[in-house]
Amino acid sequence: MSAPLRFFLIAGEPSGDALGAGLMAGLKERCGGDIVFEGVGGPLMAKEGLTSLFPMTDLSVMGLAEVLPRLPLLMRRLSRTIREIKTIRPDAVVTIDSPDFCFRVAKALKGRNIPLIHYVAPSVWAWRPGRARKIAGFLNHLLALLPFEPPYFERVGLACSFVGHPVIESGADKGDGKAFRAHHGIAENAPLICVLPGSREGEINRLAAVFGETLRILARRRPALRCVVPSLPSSKEVVTAAVRGWPGSVLVVQGEEEKYDAFAAADVALAASGTVTLELAMAETPTVVAYRLNPLTAWLAKRLVRVRFVRLVNIVLDRGVVPELLLEKCRADLLAEELSHLLEDEAARREQKSGAALALAELGRGGRPPSLRAADAVLGVIG
After folding, report:
1. What is the pLDDT of residues 265-299, one digit of tens each?
2. DSSP of 267-330, one letter per residue?
3. Could you give the C-alpha distances from 25 to 48, 164, 278, 302, in angstroms and in order?
4. Pick the CATH number of 172-362 from 3.10.105.10, 3.40.50.2000, 3.40.50.880, 3.30.1330.10
5. Distance (Å, rounded) from C-alpha 363 to C-alpha 360?
6. How many CB atoms lie within 10 A of CB 54?
7. Both ends of the chain: CA-CA distance in Å?
8. Which of 7, 235, 255, 283 sits a CA distance of 20 to 30 A from 42?
9. How far is CA 289 from CA 177, 223, 271, 296, in A?
10. 30 in helix, strand or coil?
11. How far, in Å, CA of 186 to CA of 170, rounded?
12. CATH code matching the domain that covers 5-164+367-382, chosen among 3.10.50.40, 3.40.50.1110, 3.40.50.2000, 3.90.960.10
């Protein structure tokens, strides 16, 4: 009787946890359950059978100013992860996004005859294109979410598979807006805005004030305005504290089902840049995207980033279908103006929904599920 396949997976933030859970489900479907998972992950990966080596939240930091105070902890987690992999010698290591941590793990394992696969290609098309050649020196395979990414890596000798974006099978388009409004006592004709200030404490705190002021401007024009804020279990306390004082009888909800129902119920959304903006596209919720960075990180980003857009719908279509107000443009008056336009202009809402549908088709909607494509690619690497 052959031993079960053993995989070591590493995810460092909620979006990576979702990717990891989908991959695990795909691998179990392909292998018939004869499989063992170890590594670092969050609640979604735990549901698929992973016992995390340490809390995933230890790795959930972004930007130089946030990383520095936690550097000693991060280095301890790095050392422990590398030791564990060397001890158990899995059939493959699959690192998921979080490149600052994951690539250090992969570099330390180079040459130990363990297949090293990374899920989510670095955005070399946006900034630091030289990274493609560097990671080709220590990775065996790359799984890309975007259809135009593989050539950037294949030309420097790194095998890369386009597997599609996981939002395609997220269920974000299955929300029940009518039931959500009825359950929470929100009138059918009351304007409802869904606000998503991010998943990390730093970004939530940076956006809370400007998002709150945006709502105050909107509420002065629309006294019946209601506001719903979906949150993760790991960030609910931070979110609840951040939204105190916001107008609109703010409702903080938790869980995937409530989040997707909130998307369906909302007339418009105001969201931090990130994976959630694609979920909103799946839900056909007209959205305005906003983001602020720590001043030092923002200074670096302005000098390094080479793309016009940050939201994937806009990037894939190469046009500004979804309004993006970033850095110094992330101001309450401008955000309120864009949201008001979407609330009042049916043609603008229709145009955004149409553009989102085109982008989602490019990202794999209508084809084989991304989780199975990713699982097949991983199994192909280990033979």
Report:
1. 999 999 998 888 999 999 999 999 998 766 666 55
2. SEEEEESSTHHHHHHHTT--EEEEE---HHHHHHHHHH---S--SHHHHHHTS--S-EEEGGG-
3. 7, 16, 22, 39
4. 3.40.50.2000
5. 5
6. 13
7. 18
8. 283
9. 21, 23, 5, 21
10. helix
11. 26
12. 3.40.50.2000
pLDDT in tens, 305-326: 566 787 889 999 989 899 998 8
Q: How far is CA 336 from the centre of its chain?
A: 25
Name the 3-class secondary structure at 26.
helix
Kindly tell me the burial class for residue 341, based on how many C-beta atoms sit within 10 Å of its own C-beta (0-12, 13-18, 19 or more). middle
- What six digits make up the tokens of 197? 């200030």
Decide if 109 contacts 86 (C-beta within 8 A). Answer: yes
CATH 3.40.50.2000 maps onto the chain at: 5-164+367-382, 172-362
Cβ atoms of 52 and 46 closer than 8 Å: yes
Dist CA 355 CA 319 (whole Å): 9
Cα 349 off chain centre by: 24
Average pLDDT per run of 10 along the chain, which is 383 residues long? 88 91 96 91 95 88 58 88 97 94 96 97 89 97 96 97 94 96 96 92 89 96 95 87 90 94 98 90 96 64 65 88 88 97 96 95 94 97 93
Q: How many residues does the chain have?
A: 383
Nearest CA to 52 out of 25, 97, 16 is that of 16
